[in-house]
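Ticket #4471: structure export looks truncated?
Reporter: QA, pipeline team
Priority: medium

Steps to reproduce: submit the single chain below to the structure queue and open the exported record.
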Amino acid sequence: MTIGVVYVITGANSESILQMETEVLRSSRLLRHFHPNLSQTVVLSENVSKGIIKSFDSYKVLRKEHNTPGMVSKILALEYSPYEKTLILDNDTLPVGNIVRGFDFIKGQRQLALSLAPRQEIEVKGNIITHFQNGVMFVKKTERTLELFSQWYKGVCKRDPQGPTRFIFSRLLNKFHDVSVYPLSYYWNFRVDLLLDFNICPRELRRVLPLIKIFHTHLKRPNAIKIVRQSQKVNLIKKVARVVI
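Actual output as written to the record:
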């Protein structure tokens, strides 16, 4: 099966687009460092400069009906993906290790792999539903996963597209019983800005940091920067991603 990574860049104005471009490029550079032969595709809205496409193996332009700024656009990554197995990455991710093995989590009948959210259960109308993060997702492109993402897109469009999309996604997963999900550990999607929710003490953090495969942070909050600075990969991040920490 063909495998690859997909990023999505959209924005309501030049400032938000520039921020997304900056974050996507730093993530992409780190990915290239560890996996120079892993294909990367960027999906763009029409108002994004095409100059960025030279950094990727291929690109797709969102159709006019999909030119919606905000988090809702990420949901379209699977539809536009040219791969049979896709790693969908949020723009503010920092891959710092071997992530290709993650595609093995969606072999056979398994179609989706993603990590649990810090608050791992939500209650909806008396039902307990496992709560998932969707900033790092390995997805096998099938009729059912395409339908899942289509319903996710429609559900988010009915609400605030700038708000969290994971709640709607988690509820849908509870209904799509035939979509087999593999739960990733938080090493694959280490939400630095949400560490307080994980309640990780400093001693535990020192043990965990060398195991992280993907940091997930905008690197704006002082506490997030402080934590990433403690990683053994900090110099690599600064050099390869070209980011000041």
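Status: closed, not a bug. The export was complete when the record was re-opened. Leaving a note from the reviewer for reference: Residues 14-34 form the longest helix (21 residues).
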